[in-house]
Write a structure and sequence with these properties.
467 residues; alpha/beta; 5-stranded mixed β-sheet; 19 helices; 14% strand; binds 5-phosphoarabinonic acid
Length: 467
Amino acid sequence: MLDLRKRSVREAMSVRVDINGAVAETIGSAGVAAAEVEALQPQLIAVADDLRAQRQAGQAAFYELPYERESLAATKALAETLREESETLVVLGIGGSALGTKTLIESVADGSRAVRVADNIDPWSFGALLDGLDLQRTTFNVISKSGETAETMSQFLIVRELLLRQLGGVDYVSKVILTTDAGKGALRQVVHDEGFRSLVIPAAVGGRFSVLTPVGLLPAAFAGIRLDDLLAGAAWMDERCQEPEIWKNPGHLLGTLLYLADTKHRQNIATLMPYSDRLHWFAAWFAQLWAESLGKAQHLDGTAANVGQTPLTAVGATDQHSLLQLFAEGPKDKITIMLRVEDHGRELPVASAYKDIEPLAYLGGTGLGKLLNMEQRGTEVALVKQGRPVITLSVPQINAFTIGQLFYLFEVATVFAGGLYRIDPFNQPGVEESKRLTYGQVGRAGFDAKSEEVRAYLANKKDHLIV
Ligand code: PA5
């Protein structure tokens, strides 16, 4: 176990952001020049000041999550009880209510309990998940900040009916935990009406910034993840991101480089490429955070913006045989962020054989982890040689402490980039209309006009444009 009280241990376990492969000094004009960063200094200072003020005013509440002790105690206690009661926790949630949990379970769960995350309403996969459950040994955690997201609510209604039928009206209540806003929304009302156990998502923390609230923490604790280490990792990154000097502040530097890559170097696609299967969902979590926070139609002052850098996910080494050709020789519109795991926590030695057949012989004696890291380095060099920028994040090991750092690092980078783009990173007005159009089609009261819009759209389709 890591003794994280020691600064030397925290230093040794630090995630490092290496920007060598993304600056002009190394890769020429495709890279961000030091002078570009210097020219941005007034904005960098203004954004840092503004975010500090927002933090103090409680408007950027995610900053304080590593230090929330009260709800942490309640979350840990409930998780302990659930571990006694159940073998499996099924999370019903979508977007920010699901992706952080998926990351945590994939990367650092200890295997003592199963957590399944149902973040889609595909009847095939959700039906199959339900078919395979032992309901006596399963708890459902319904997670929704708004308490009314159609996907999650419909899953909840299906599960509720199933439990009622199989366990009866008394026992079924003990099988569902609701995680939602403290006062608002339909789910909170259901808690009041039926007495479900529940946890609170702080009002000022939006879905994609909520992994370090009970949204991610309850499933994580159920899965045997050490919450103290996770939050210590976030707090450690917070400390590092307080540094006023831009070149020494990992979060601000990452946000600034990606912002400049997009706005000054036309690299409007940012690929997150972990060289580890255990970080595959982390890339998806990042994609949501980056896309939903920064893709905005308006600046803060109401003027037109239509900004945002498109996130793309890839996994090394797998996608070297899929996407890399495009990254290396296609349009020069991308910057790649590689996650390199120094110690994979396990090594599989490659056996030596076929001494006289070189394509097999040379591999003998290496390990798969070593090979994976050499492939990461080889790909980094190959891209940089082509003038394709690469930022490399070095992760000493995958553990709760480093995962906490990664979550916090990217959250800080995102809000910092949001400040530079002069947009609100915490809202998502662009996803609301599709929700309203869905409500209209299903027949929700008050959305008749939306149903009519869909009908008119379909009526307008031309047969000759359908083959
Ligand atoms: O980041 C966000 O705010 C969204 O992705 C939400 O998490 C997602 O839409 C689910 O919303 P809710 O938690 O209200 O069900």
